[in-house]
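Troubleshooting log. The previous structure file for this entry was overwritten by mistake, so regenerating from the original sequence record. Sequence copied from the archived sheet and checked twice against the printout by T.R.
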Amino acid sequence: MYLPKAFEETRAEVLDALMRAHPFATLVAVRDGLPLAHHLPLAWDAENRRLQGHVARGNELATLDGAPVLAIFQGPQGYVSPNWYPGKHETGREVPTWNYVVVHARGRLRVIEDAQWLRGLLGRLTDHHEADEAMPWRLSDAPEDYVETLLRGVVGIEIAVDGLQGKFKLSQNHPARNRAGVVAGLRRRAQGDDEALAALMLAAGELRDDV
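Regenerated output below.
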């Protein structure tokens, strides 16, 4: 991806946090010379640098064992109006843009047929995503014969990640007063990812939280 130095994010803990907070990824591969894009949750194992998930047995990914792939994790994003920049009102030399954060993870796909591995993964995934529920659902809550049927219909996938790229486009190429104007504009609009994007901008620069 196009990655100006001002927007490059290399801190492992920041990249890890985004992938964990936004696990629903776009997984890109090539088959017969054509690009494929699939959308699925992927769990990030930072210690072993592995992404893990599962797909239906009929999914094209199930036929691509060993293929190079790219997983894209999209964080908060939003439109930025030039009217939010104090500098615009002085010179007019500003245009609209879009702020966003993404992480790209590259590696090779491994298709896993091991039912025990897959059962363990599904158990960990459900335990993680059900953790905030008053009565968390467990894989063991479903009838065993039903679980066995479902397991036969899916395969596990694992990506050994050999490269991570983070792009955090948060107005770092603007002076502090323009960045503060964007934070204030996002908070006034307060739609979609605006508040989360404003928080990321505050964390990325020397801005007060009362802008």
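The chain has a mean pLDDT of 93. Archived copy saved in two places this time.
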